[in-house]
Amino acid sequence: MVTARGITARLAYRELDELDGPLLPFLAASGAELGSVAEIPWRFSPDDPVVALIRLISRVALTHPTAAGPHTARLAQQLDVS
User: Fold this and answer.
1) Model pLDDT, residue 41
2) C-alpha to C-alpha distance for 77 and 57, rounded to whole angstroms
3) Which whole-number Å values give the CA distances from 49 to 1, 17, 52, in the listed order?
4) Would you call 28 helix, strand, or coil by DSSP?
5) Number of Cβ atoms within 10 Å of the Cβ of 66
C-alpha cells in the first residue's frame, strides 16, 4: 500500500509542471484523502494549486506517515505511468 511518506518520496522526483494538467485531479483526490485521514484541514492560500496540494501531502507525511487510501494508490499508479 502506498502511504503518505511513499507518495511524498515519489513527488519529490517530479517537476511541478509535470504535476499540473492530467495529474492534477489525482493529486487533488490524494491530498483530500490524506488530509481527511490525518484530520489536517485544507488551508486556502494564494499559492499555485499544485504547490498547495504538495504542501498538504507533505504535512500529512510528517505527522501521519502511514496514512493511505485508494486515491493515493491511484496517484502512485498515474505517476508510474507518466
Assistant:
1) 87
2) 16
3) 26, 11, 5
4) helix
5) 12
Which strand (E) or helix (H) includes residue 72? helix 70-81
Q: What is the reported pTM?
A: 0.92
- The answer to whether the beta carbons of residues 72 and 33 sit under 8 Å apart is yes
16-49 pLDDT, tens digit per residue, is 999 999 999 999 999 999 999 999 988 777 878 9
Q: State the Cα–Cα distance between residues 79 and 82, nearest whole angstrom.
A: 5
Residue type for 20, please? D
Residue 10: which of 52, 40, 49, 23 has the closest Cα? 23
Residue type, 56: L
Does residue 34 contact residue 55 with C-beta atoms inside 8 Å? no
- Phi and psi at 5, nearest 5°, equal -65, -45
Question: What pLDDT digit, counting tens, does each position of 49-69 carry?
Answer: 999 999 999 999 999 999 999
